[in-house]
Amino acid sequence: MSDFDPKFVEQTVARIGRSPEALIPILQRLQDQFGFLPAEALEQVCALSDIRPAEVTGVSTFYDMFRHAPVGRHVVRVCVGTACHVAGTDKIADALRLHLHIPPGEDTDADREFTIESVACLGCCTLAPVVKIDGATIGHATAEKVPEIIRDFLANQNRPATNESTEELSAVRANANRASATIHVGLGSCCMAKGSDELYHALRAGAARSGAQVNVKRVGCVGMCHRTPMIEVAVPGAANRFYADLTPAHAGALLQAHFRPRGLLGRASSLWQSALDGLLVDTEPPAEQVARAEMGVRDSGVQAFLDRQVHIATEHFGRIDPLDLDEYVAHDGFAALRHALADLKPEAIISVVEQSGLRGRGGAGFPTGQKWRVVHGQPGPDKFVICNGDEGDPGAFMDRMILESFPFRVLEGMAIAALATGAHAGIFYIRHEYPLAVRRVRAALATLERRGWLGDRLLGANYPFRVSIMEGAGAFICGEETALIESIEGRRGMPRLRPPFPAVSGLWNKPTLINNV
To answer: How far apart are the first and last CA of the chain?
Structure first.
């Protein structure tokens, strides 16, 4: 939170745009900078742009994320979604107010250190109740744990963040070239809410100190949010093993038990190796909290649970790095798009989707291929494909999980939809409450653009396709497709009367295909 800076407002408007559709991204950047929307900043936005004061007022008071009053140095967001409400989130809010000395009727303490906000849903329903302090998400919170939660947050403010850039990926790849064994660490939102990112860093640091020849690898959702932090140890020639409910304190013992370090310790006698095995047992969580299973053995609960599943949208879950483009390609990533570009006309793509029986997930179950065919049949060169990632229904976080774990797969689907309908512009509309999903989709887009696979030439073909991201601003109604369009156009998310349907007249009154993640 910083003092009002007119220069920042000027730079923001210049960078984002001066037309009315730029309003919501401008307000989001201002709130990120100042912690709220200063009246002077809003007046300056109107003076520098074509946005009217009435539009600023209407939009900034409609969306839940925008504030018009200052906040503390740290914002504590308490999820009040159905799962969290049932699990007692109201008691947690009361305990937070008491512990942080926030007076009745106020949301910020007198020293302006902490501000409490209610959030409709944080998308970690399996970990309810959930609290988020700045960027740190805490699952299974209780009123009794509030002092510990605040104490741990203040103590860990400077802990290393999990890098979503290609730099960390390059380092992991370099280590993978030297190592034959791999530890897969799930780093989705639910995983990280229970400390998987801390475990990831502890394992990487421990491997570097000991010289253990192991690749500690980031993967997406591991499919068992209630058992995280969960890892899978894959050693060539041995059965894979799973460990659940680990903490960073277990990293050293696990590495010593599975990987023989270099030097004197690496040449230890069988007696010393036995001592290491004993150390691993002594430092593991209680037996009823640990899942250890060899592949094919069904007595652990974990393997039995996973073996019953058939993964389609989540194929290769828990094994591939969400942002490793080369790994995605090695698992047949973009093969379908290449096939569509090289061998299929739009009508043939649509026929495949129609024959699949795929339907929308919004409740009406509208046939997807039929919607694609309507958009394809509209005249004119200007069409849009929108990926609707603004889920907010109770207990629903499948969109967040897929965006975090499989961003390249969703982008490939959007590109195929664009080919089928004749669209050359794609837009991700993602909930602001899903920052990890936003970061990973941005990183995936940047990787594809650097590779030359997005932009003027889609996968090198003579088909331009550009993709952008629009973050939601905390309005549940924007999950409805016409309200979502209003939001992208910079207005309050009010549903439109239909017909016309978006497939005929949608974004900017152009044919628009809107599909769920």
So the answer is: 34
Residue type for 147, please?
A: P
**Structure-token pair, residue 208:** 């570097």
| pLDDT score, position 178 | 61
| 217 and 321 Cβ atoms separated by less than 8 Å | yes
Tokens 């998310």 sit on residue:
493
Token pair, residue 154, equals 């203040």
Give the C-alpha separation, 365 to 359, whole Å.
Answer: 5
pLDDT per residue as tens digits for the range 350-368: 999 999 999 987 778 899 9
Show Cβ contacts of residue 83 under 8 Å, excluding neighbours closer than 6 positions.
Answer: 125, 126, 128, 394, 395
Between residues 249 and 303, the one the model is more confident about: 249
Residue type (1 letter), 449: E
Q: What is the distance between the alpha carbons of residues 249 and 199, in angstroms, rounded to a whole number?
A: 8
CA contacts within 13 A on the Cβ side of 67: 18
Which helix (H) or strand (E) segment is 5 a member of? none
Instruction: Write the DSSP string, 91-107.
Output: HHHHHHHHHTTPPTT-S
Rounded-to-integer distance, Cα 121 and Cα 81, Å: 5
Cβ atoms of 241 and 294 within 8 Å: the answer is: yes
Residue 165's pLDDT is: 58
Taking residue 278's Cβ as centre, other Cβ atoms within 10 Å add up to 12
Given the structure tokens 């090198």, which residue do they identify? 460
- pTM (predicted TM-score): 0.89
- Give the angle 172-178-182 at the CA atoms, nearest 5°: 60
How far are the Cα atoms of 205, 329, 352, 446, 462 from residue 419, in angstroms, in the given order? 45, 20, 13, 21, 11
Given its phi and psi angles, is residue 515 left (phi above 0), alpha (psi -120 to 50 degrees) or beta? beta
Length of the chain: 517
* CA nearest neighbour of 456 among 464, 448, 467, 446: 464
**Stretch 260-282: mean pLDDT:** 39
3-class DSSP assignment, residue 452: coil
Whether residue 42 contacts residue 56, with contact meaning beta carbons closer than 8 Å, is answered with yes
Beta strands per DSSP E along 187-336: 214-219, 230-234, 241-244
Please name the residue ranges forming H helices in 317-434.
Answer: 325-330, 335-343, 346-356, 368-376, 398-405, 407-421
pLDDT at 401: 94
Rounded to whole angstroms, the Cα distance separating 470 from 383 reads 17
Rg (C-alpha) for the chain, rounded Å, is 25
